[in-house]
Amino acid sequence: QFPFGRRLPCDIYWHGVSFHDNNIFSGQVNKFPGMMETVRKITLSRAMRTMQDLFPLEYNFYPRSWILPEELPLFVAEVRVMKDSDPSWKPTFIVKPDGGCQGDGIYLIKDPSDIRLTGSIQSRPAVVQEYICKPLLVDKLKFDIRLYVLLKSLEPLEIYIAKDGLSRFCTEPYQEPTLKNLHQVFMHLTNYSLNIHSENFIHSDSVNTGSKRTFSSILCRLSSRGADVKKLWSDIISLVIKTIIALTPELKVYYQSDIPSGKPGPTCFQILGFDILLMKNLKPMLLEVNANPSMRIEHEQELSPGVFENVPSPVDEEVKVAVIRDTLRLVDPQKKKRKDAQCIYLYLRPLFLFKTVTRCMKDKQHKHHSLKLSLKLKFYLKLGSCPRSEHVPESSESLLDAVPAERPEPDAARSPEAGLPSLCLKQVFPKYAKQFSYLRLVDRVAALFIRFLGVKGTTKLGPTGFRTFIRNCKLSNSNFSMAAVDILYIDITRRWNSMGIDHKESGMCLQAFVEAFFCLAQKKYKSLPLHEQVLSLLEFCECHLAALDEKRLLWGWG
Ligand code: ADP
């Protein structure tokens, strides 16, 4: 740990909040540049909307959402049309301020006219979303799932999912929303930070009782009631992969801006927290993605009025220690150079991780490590034999088997990690890449965008870059003049910039470029469905660019 900065380059940098250190030229950082911005409620909703436009059936796991204030008229109009076409439809909506967390500022409404417009929406944009009225209940209570996902690499895409997660319970029995109970947060919102203040909140020493439990304990219960938990897991895996596919285009733009290819820089990985709600019919719905999921393994307990103490939380420890331990195992730089290297320099930033590690080391009585690695490497390998992690209850073990079978890590048996519990992180991508690759259209649009960004370090495309894109891809013709190209650029860019998320740079952001690209695709391939129009235009552009590259190579244009 380098609490006051560091001098030597490190193998792994563990930052607390975001990617912020511009002096890293090697090693691996636990944050991607731009992740915080990419998973904000509004940006996530936009990315999901783009994917829903392209692939409506594949992306029906995200509730219908509108962005406020700009889409308020659209929201009002669409709800009116839906109500007119189905008078029995009595929807509820949930309004969530952008950038909020822990249930902050969230409220439920029955009608678009109930949106609180006074001042706050203008200064603090929000997402309004269809409220899922029929969640799965356990013990009559609503709960959500926090799953940990490791984005190990962006290019090539590598995704891992933790086999266990947390279930966070409401503390008032659930009733479908009515005007009378809309404001009852302990009934409708599952946030731990809210429910902990309820007198019904139950701290538990066991992983399958109380207001916070392991997800595997819920699966166990569902399975004993005859539910198809294997299908549920595969739906969850598919939800996670599709969500990350929706996020990667934006992440790649940030990545090339902060870590231009060809220059020395670190690689990145990140643990994300996926919040998922199960509907009564067991369909998982995505609520949100957290760039900084809490890794606390303690909770506060009020010993006497006003006197608090941090006490261990076995449920958090069970799940989170394994996630951090296995993330470190997976990104272990020594795997590649185990033979000659002796030491990992691990740059730990947040104090909680340090506490987690040291407490586990204190707990640890075993002395069976015969590793000749340095103390620092032992430091985290020892986490693996933290006593709690060894006691996976039999029932949940068998449920974990319900997760599609996983091949052991090729070098696991031979490595010094052989004594550790099996990985709690399951690789899902590229493992299931074949099933999902057709969804990666916006990724290809982003690749075009990045190619024409020109000057490294920017995230927005200037008018010249856009014109070059049109020319190089031969998209201009007698029906679509360069003057029309300029008008398209100005129209779309102005509208996106007036929505004002990022005023720092002028020019066309990725989402605006995607909109322009869809527009061009619709113009050129009129009668096809949108995803086929976009695919056709992509192939057209890529083909022209490949020919151009070949020509340049031949003529030595550089
Ligand atoms: P925050 O970041 O403030 O926690 P979330 O999007 O996670 O915001 O919402 C807070 C809680 O509200 C969730 O944990 C969930 O219990 C509930 N919730 C959010 N969106 C929906 C929805 N569309 N339908 C039903 N419940 C929801």
TrEMBL record:
Pfam annotation, one family: TTL
Molecular function GO terms recorded: ATP binding; tubulin binding; tubulin-glutamic acid ligase activity
Family matches, as Gene3D superfamilies: ATP-grasp fold, B domain
InterPro entries associated with the record: TTL/TTLL_fam (IPR004344)
Keyword Cell membrane in record: no
Keyword ATP-binding among UniProt keywords: yes
Superkingdom to which the source organism belongs: Eukaryota
GO CC terms in record: ciliary basal body
Ranges of Basic and acidic residues composition bias in the record: 404-414
Keywords from the named record: ATP-binding, Ligase, Nucleotide-binding
Record's protein name: TTL11 polyglutamylase
Species of origin: Cephalopterus ornatus (Amazonian umbrellabird)
